């Protein structure tokens, strides 16, 4: 239902939606938070912590046991890659272990990417 509403909101929104809202992305991140942490003190958990993910090499969070596919992905996350991954993880990193079926509107993808972009790389975290 919420997805439908978000889709509607997207249709009704003015074209000036470009200033995507990192705050909205923070709310959207709830659907990732079962597996991922981000922000001060974030740790890899069920999934890798995502601080500084924009500009971070894929499969490189210390202490996380990535799939071979993700370890070998061989690229650095930028906004385009992230958005594509959220739309279809397997299309970007075939054989990766992230299983995520949350349907997302394009607007939510944009908000999530804006939010993640706003979360800096971590200071070294104590184990
Ligand atoms: C059910 C658990 C789960 C959910 C929900 C989930 N992820 Fe993941 N995610 C993972 C796992 C596990 C990996 C590591 C995959 C691998 O090693 O192949 C991963 C990997 C990633 C990576 C690559 C990280 C890196 O260090 O290269 C990104 C980016 C990511 N997830 C973003 C998200 C976002 C954003 C959401 C919410 C829309 C989300 N994930 C939802 C489990 C999850």
Structural features, described:
The protein has 127 residues and is an all-alpha fold. It has one domain: Cytochrome c-like domain (Cytochrome Bc1 Complex, Chain D, domain 2), CATH 1.10.760.10. It has helices at residues 2-12, 22-28, 68-71, 79-87, 89-92, 106-117. It is globular. Heme C (HEC) binds next to helix 3 and helix 4.
Task: Please give a handful of descriptors for the protein shown.
single chain; 127 residues; mainly alpha; Cytochrome Bc1 Complex, Chain D, domain 2; 6 helices; 37% helix; 0% strand; globular; binds heme C; Cyt_c_1A/1B; Cyt_c-like_dom; Cyt_c-like_dom_sf; signal
Taking the sheet with the most strands, its summary is:
none
Low-confidence stretches: 13-19
Question: Could you tell me the radius of gyration in angstroms?
Answer: 15 Å
Q: How would you name the CATH homologous superfamily?
A: Cytochrome c-like domain
Mean pLDDT: 85
CATH architecture: Orthogonal Bundle
Short description:
This protein is an all-alpha fold and 127 residues long. Helices cover 37% and strands 0% of the residues. The chain has a single domain, classed as Cytochrome c-like domain (Cytochrome Bc1 Complex, Chain D, domain 2), CATH 1.10.760.
Give a topology summary.
Elements: H1 2-12, H2 22-28, H3 68-71, H4 79-87, H5 89-92, H6 106-117
Helix pairs in contact: 2-6, 4-6
The site of heme C (HEC) has 28 residues, from helix 3 and helix 4.
């Amino acid at each position: 239902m919420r997805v439908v509403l978000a889709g509607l909101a997207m249709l009704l929104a003015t074209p000036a939606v470009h200033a995507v809202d990192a705050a909205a992305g923070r709310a959207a991140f709830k659907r990732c938070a079962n597996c991922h942490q981000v922000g001060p003190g974030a740790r890899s958990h069920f999934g890798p912590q995502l601080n500084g993910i924009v500009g971070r090499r894929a499969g490189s969070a210390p202490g996380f046991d990535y799939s071979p596919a993700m370890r070998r992905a061989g690229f650095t996350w930028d906004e385009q890659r992230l958005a594509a991954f959220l739309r279809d993880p397997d299309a970007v990193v075939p054989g990766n272990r992230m299983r995520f079926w949350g349907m997302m509107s394009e607007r939510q993808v944009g908000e999530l990417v804006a939010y993640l972009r706003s979360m800096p790389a971590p200071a070294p975290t104590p184990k």
